[in-house]
Amino acid sequence: MTILSNGHQWKYSEFTDNKNYSFNKNEILNVLAKQDMDEAYQIISGWDNYSPTPLISLNKLSKKLNVKKIFYKDESKRFHLKSFKALGGAYAVEKVTKGKKHITISTATAGNHGRSVAWGSKKLGLKCKIFISEYVSEFRAKVMRSFGADVIRVKGNYDNSLKECIKQSKQNNWQIVQDVAWQDYKLVPKLTMAGYSVMMKEISEQMNNQQISHVILQAGVGGMAAAMVAGIARYLDNVPKIIVVEPESAACVLESIKTGKIEKISIEKESLMGGMSCDEVSLVPWEILKNSVSHCVTVSDDYIAKTVKCLANCEFSDEKIVGGECSTPGITSLIALSNNIEIRNKINLHKDSNVLLEAFKVGDYDYRREYNAKRWQTNYDFPAINRCDVELNSSFKLENCSLIKLFKTCFNFEISTKLFIGIVLLQYT
């Protein structure tokens, strides 16, 4: 068991091999073509303020885990959206509109995809309609409105917001730019994935001829993971071990890999890894992932805050890294897998291994969603919650907290509130 300097331990929940594994570059590139990825890079690299996001060496962690190097692709530096999503939605908007100005763009989202679509629409002077569920925070809605989008809140969950988006888009002849594919809707998700593949292009150039032996990819509906796999097929000479990590409560890729077909799972409890809490793999990503993923692993919410804290405290790297709830599962799973000698041997993880990890976004926790008192008490069962170390009640108002008032007096309210909540999370988990 790997025990870091602060005494933290990591465990994985489930690990499985892909019995249908067969990495075939031609088959992968038939789904997402070379020319589509090359065009995406050509266009996106020409955007104002474009620059490759950094590839950070987690040098301290690599020594602890006895591997050669661990590379962490930090997407918190991606434009001012601070998320890899900036590459996908905005690019798809540009491609589908083809310079036309009369088109209205629409999408359903829980946050970052909507930001990207709204930003891309604003760049092109287009109207934008964004549908969100009742569970999406007003803070996130406000951010999307800041890009000129008309945000429409729908009662119910994400599925309800997507259905309403499709309904109104058909009625009003709006162009849907969604990152999820369905039977008759595959072009736009492919364009979105082509945008994401820019990350792998950047990585290939940043590696300085060093070979990547292992890649650990977070997965929700699978779009980012599949795009990275396609990028591997396009830009890397070697084929690394490709491991998908998911929340234990939302392991739709793992369950689909087990059976060899898309499995829709039932999510009984929403994961803290909100952007990865998905019940079904999207159609286009599945065509890539079903054979190219070598292994799948799941992790619980219990370890996410610990990983965030270690990144922030420079325990993994010489750099202080601000990681979000969906940026850290890769690190969490790597540490957990490294604890098991049998697993290490199975995945060929050894002292000469170079491991690539992908960071989704900056650590801007949606405190109005994730840190609502009721949610802490009813949706999560962290050890800290079970111990009653976090004792918030449904009447608790962050805005009324004396510490918050102090921060509000001295600093920006939104920033100070996030800081306060970060302190709560790191202190009590």
For this entry, give a set of tags.
429 residues, alpha/beta, Rossmann fold, 3 domains, 20 helices
Estimated radius of gyration: 21 Å
CATH topology label of the largest domain? Rossmann fold
Q: Report the major sheet.
A: 7 strands, mixed
Could you tell me the strand content as a percent range?
A: 5-15%
Q: How many angstroms does the end-to-end distance come to?
A: 20 Å
Number of domains: 3
Secondary structure: helix percent? 40-55%
User: What's the total helix number?
Assistant: 20
Biggest sheet, spatial arrangement of strands: 1-10-9-8-11-3-2
**Strand-pairing-aware structural class:** alpha/beta
Describe the structure.
The chain is of the alpha/beta class. It has three domains: 14-82 and 192-359, 3-Layer(aba) Sandwich (Rossmann fold); 85-184, Rossmann fold; 371-428, no CATH class. The chain is built from 20 helices and eleven strands. It has helices at 25-31, 34-44, 59-65, 85-97, 112-123, 138-145, 158-172, 187-196, 198-206, 223-235, 252-259, 283-292, 304-312, 329-338, 341-346, 367-370, 373-378, 383-386, 402-410, 413-428; strands at residues 14-17, 55-57, 69-74, 104-108, 127-133, 150-154, 175-176, 214-218, 241-247, 295-299, 354-359. The strands form two sheets. It has a seven-stranded mixed beta sheet with strand order 1-10-9-8-11-3-2, sandwiched between helices. Strands 6-5-4-7 form a four-stranded parallel beta sheet, with helices on both faces. Helix 2 packs across helix 8 (187-196) and helix 10 (223-235) crosses helix 12. The model is unreliable at 362-429 (pLDDT under 50).
